[in-house]
Amino acid sequence: MILAAVSTGENILRMLLTEPTKLALIWSLLALGLYLSFRILDVADLSLEGTFPVAGIISVIVINAGVNPFLSLLIAMAFGAVMGLLVAALNVYLKIPSLLAGIIVMTGLFSVNVLLGHGSVTISDSSNTVFGWLSNLFVDAFRSGGSETPKYWGNSLGAALVLVLVDVLIAGAIYWFFGTELGLAIRSSGKSKETASAQGVNNRLSSLVCMALSGAVIALAGSLYAQMNLTATNTAGQGTLVLSLAIVFIGELVLRGVSFKTHLVSIFVGGFVYWLLLGLIERIPGFDVNYLYLIQATLMTLVMVIGLLVKKLPNKSKKKEGVTHA
Amino acid sequence: MLELISLAKAFPFEGDPSKERRAIQDVNLHLADGDFLVVIGGNGSGKSTLLNLIAGTIRPDEGRVVLNGIDLNRLPERKRAKYIGRVFQDPKAGSIGDFTLFENLALAYNRGKPHTLRWSMTKDRRELFAKLLEPLGLGLEKRLDERMRTFSGGERQAATLLMATFNDPKLLLLDEHTSALDPKTSAMVMDLTDRFSKDIKGSTLMITHNLKDAIAHGNRLLMMKEGRIVYQCEGAEKARLTMADLITRYTEEGLDSLGSSGLN
């Protein structure tokens, strides 16, 4: 009995610490980056499909050149911020519609991607990542604890903890920033440029700052993704837009709150629900990995349709509410 | 103190860009601090263009807009917001529906000041806003954390009016701000308008379609027609003004706009 319970517990823990969990933590971060442009500024920025893989490649290259992995995160973020600024500048100064501005930057980054990455780059010392230090500590702890697979447990737990830490830190920083005077002004720009202008808000500055932040967070996710895989490929960006959009939408479906705090939490919930769904689909007998993008696209469509249906339902009751209020 | 000096603005005709519609023609105006000016005029008389020229939404072809000695022509709309508080015809335009009342007030409280990295919704501000909302008599001080979208038109205009008076505006610009409201709510908002126009040190400029409001409020009145000021009065003359007077003026101008356009 007790043995069975222990093994069930271990199985759950094993499941929680496997790849999807860590991926969910990274995808949530990516979705958070997208949320900044898509929901706060109301701009559909496609550049993330370029920023995400290039940030990973840059990280791997600088780590191999002897840069501290944590510093590589910051370098990747600076790169992402510049890409975000570029998209915003194309829109604000050259009046190119933001959707096109994103496509332009994304397309340009394809070349950077290929030139820098040559297909793929690999971290030469596998413990030299942001996950390494904590993972090594845990590996040692598990080894002295008598575990049969100390490396597996140590690495998994270490990586998951680092990712949780980064996610919490970034979400917290974003929550704080958008509650400051500058953050509030940026959010007002995203809601109504006219109203914001009448309140003295500089809409151009709002675009520039928010897109830079968005790019930095997306690049951070790209850097973590590369360091987790110990390798960065130039195809890593494919499908990231649909993926992160789906996470944002699922999150909004699951947690339908109105406060900014709820919105932020919903992205992480969305990340986990999304990977739960994909995990279930992958377990369908006869699943072929080549169908992944097709499945993601279908999933995205389903989420959007369900979202629209759900929105329609409570509208009726809201109208009734409105009548009683009046 | 607002000065409009030989202000002119023309728009190309829709359908025939070679022709122009002269929306504002040689408008001169001097508005002292404490003045409450009501602007009336038919559709296309140029009163909205005049307001947009002052707010900075559009730029004049000729002439200057000077507020307290500052040449506003050089400043974009967002920089004029430092000196000008505005309430719009559409109750949805003055505040952000997705923001809570608290967030909207905090945004307005920052108008004309640099946006820093200080927390915008402090406890001190919450208390201050609640104190300022209470005299409106609408119970809004208890609804600081509700989205403005859920507010009625009157509640939204009342809150926007309060927002417009933050940071001691040199000019309060009211663009038919009661026209979307029912008569009772409109009266409530006009009541608040009178109060706020006295509270601020600067002057108030209100556009209205409602002749009753034009008579009952403000110490100055100005009638526009085809981009020109065709009649204005103030003080005792304004106080004596009746509905019949205004309607006579209106029709007179309609019949003989050339003869009286020299009136200034």
What is the gist of this entry?
The complex is a heterodimer of chains A (326) and B (264). Chain A has 326 residues and is mainly α.
Task: Please characterize this protein's 3D structure.
The complex is a heterodimer of chains A (326) and B (264). Chain A has helices at residues 2-16, 19-40, 48-64, 69-92, 98-117, 132-144, 150-177, 181-191, 193-198, 203-229, 240-254, 260-282, 292-325; strands spanning 120-122, 231-233. Mean pLDDT of chain A is 86; it is low at 316-326. The relative contact order of chain A is 0.16. The longest helix of chain A is centred in the last third of the chain and has 34 residues, at 292-325. Chain A is mainly alpha-helical. Chain A is globular, with a radius of gyration of 21 Å. Chain A starts with a helix and ends with a helix. Chain B is built from ten helices and ten strands. Chain B has a single domain (2-260), classed as 3-Layer(aba) Sandwich (Rossmann fold), CATH 3.40.50.300. In chain B, α3 (101-109) packs parallel to α5 (153-164) and α5 packs parallel to α6. The two termini of chain B are 19 Å apart. Chain B has a six-stranded mixed sheet with strand order 6-7-8-3-9-10, sandwiched between helices. Chain B has a four-stranded antiparallel sheet with strand order 2-1-4-5, covered by helices on one side. The relative contact order of chain B is 0.17. Helices cover 34% and strands 24% of the residues of chain B. The interface between A and B is medium-sized, with 25 and 33 residues.
